[in-house]
Amino acid sequence: MYHHEIELRVSRDLAYLTLNEAPIQSSVTIDAESPDLIEAWHEVLSRMPNDVYAALKAAMPKEPDR
Questions:
Q1: Contact 54/12 with Cβ under 8 angstroms?
Q2: In this structure, what DSSP letter does residue 53 have?
Q3: What mean pLDDT do residues 2-11 have?
């Protein structure tokens, strides 16, 4: 039996600022652990911010139509 630990850290800041913008930074750390790898990933995915989840989904290869 295995014990799985998954940790995802997403940090972001503005690539450039205009004169009227204040610096914005954010960081999110998501972690999960479980003896079931699928359950651990499910927990991480369910706690992702919406934009991070959408980017991950868009980056995944599409299944061909059958």
A1: no
A2: H
A3: 95
pLDDT in tens, 24-43: 888 999 999 999 999 999 99
pLDDT of residue 66: 67
* Alpha carbons 28 and 8: distance in angstroms, whole number: 8
From the list 19, 39, 43, the residue with the least C-alpha distance to 31 is 43
The token pair that represents 34 in the structure block: 């479980």
pTM above 0.90, yes or no: no
Tell me how long the chain is. 66
Residue found by looking up tokens 């913008």 in the block: 21
Alpha helices in 1-66 (DSSP H): 37-46, 50-59
Alpha-carbon span 64 to 32, nearest angstrom: 31
Is 6 within 8 Å of 40 (Cβ atoms)? yes
